[in-house]
Amino acid sequence: MATMKSLIGLINKIQRACTVLGDHGGEGMSLWEALPTVAVVGGQSSGKSSVLESVVGRDFLPRGSGIVTRRPLVLQLHKTDEGTTEYAEFLHDPRKRFTDFAAVRKEIEDETDRITGKSKQISNKPIQLSIYSPNVVNLTLIDLPGLTKVAVEGQPDSIVQDIENMVRSYVEKPNCIILAISPANQDIATSDAIKLAREVDPTGERTFGVATKLDIMDKGTDCLDVLEGRSYRLQHPWVGIVNRSQADINKRVDMIAARRKEREYFETSPEYGHLASRMGSEYLAKLLSQHLETVIRQKIPSIVALINKSIDEINAELDRIGRPIAVDSGARLYTILELCRAFDRVFKEHLDGGRPGGDRIYGVFDHQLPAALKKLPFDRHLSTRNVQKVVSEADGYQPHLIAPEQGYRRLIDGSISYFKGPAEATVDAVHFVLKELVRKSISETEELKRFPTLASDIAAAANEALERFRDESRKTVLRLVDMESSYLTVEFFRKLHLEPEKEKPNPKNAPPQNADIHSDNHFRKIGSNVSAYINMVCDTLRISLPKAVVYCQVREAKRSLLNFFYAQVGRKEKEKLGGMLDEDPQLMERRGTLAKRLELYKQARDDIDAVAWK
Fold this sequence. Notes:
- The protein is of the alpha/beta class.
- Helices cover about 60% and strands about 10% of the residues.
- The protein has a 9-stranded mixed sheet with strand order 4-3-5-2-6-1-7-8-9, sandwiched between helices.
């Protein structure tokens, strides 16, 4: 079985770590709350501070009138080997050892004032003090502000309730052992400490009663009814304490001598002599230490269960917000590339239909492009008047003899040039859809949410690549349009020439149709022929333009959206890679806190396993 020293020392170690990490609460029970502690509770001037100093064997606590203890003091006692030097350490200044206990008192006062100021305000932020001495037992005590019934000058009216609420926040915990200090020269029934202990621990299982000031009771009276459990029974025996008198304090009688004087008092007392072996501060310290060790051993299964539950919860949260990144350049580069691939997977899912958005590209081809083609002004360009104008200008001074070939070519070139607008609009529309899919993919890539700088860099690189793809796509679709102008399909016009013209019956005595190459009918025929040819070109481009756009933009976005970015990242130095993985400061702070807490819990579990069952 584990030794008392190892178990209590382990709990002390875990408590110190919990205090550093601020692990005092939250939803459910914190590890701090699960650890057994001893809370020292008493009214003002009940002798609470004197009891603690007697247990420690040192004069180290601030003294004065009114509220002296204004912050909880977590006092951890560590028994050392005989002959070793006594010293104290504060958790807020762990590198400094105090061997002068007057300096310890001054540090407690200064640290209290640092939080509460010079006023008489209180704070629930604890001061943690560890004392290492051969004259103590292994024990952890929490000295709480003394309960009071009235506010003094300089204190708010709420101070009475504020102190009680603070004390309750400790003693209500089921793992808190209550050390209730009551002066023997007052009625125990009116003791503030006993009254509070009865409310939070009605069975008395967690309460140890301490009667102080036995030596200054009125003559003819004693405290036997209390000490022997007849006046107010607890599950644990009452312990009587004789504090140093004010004269002893003024004479600076040391605590070791005071302990000796206390033993002599009980051994020679006619009232308490038969109880001498169970009285005094030394007995009280041993009693509390033994009980604390027993409680710790009983609570180990529940403590370990809480630790395991907390480890699982922390691991789940770390998985959600992301694990810490290694500091070497290779690991950082690998992380960046993995994050890029995660983004790329989401982007491709949008294009391929696994996520919404890619269908908008088909909408450009199926609706937007055909609608734009229908709106082209061919009716105006191929009107009889414009055909006549273009053909006449193409003929120059010599009118055409049979067919106005130059006029045809000018009309066709002019008509085909109108296709450039819808072609470029299709490129831009698809570019807009791709940019929007990049934005959505960045926001939907969970792994990138913790790295806003990298997400911004990826978005910028992806958009730059899309710009390049758009430029290439624009060149390609314009080439397709220019190709239609550069070489006309001769067979189309030959077929027109071979087709017999359907002649309408002429009115009686009317001149035959096409008798004049400059008649409106002649120019309407030319416009009709060109319109038929342009319709054929339109059908061709309606099919070929989407193919070119997909090939130059969509296909390349799937294949090489971040290729240029990969090459740039591979050439970056370690510091710049670290800058790309810069996270939200609050997220980094949260992860750091979780990592430290996880390490605390794992170490606590290992330590408990190492000592609990020896």
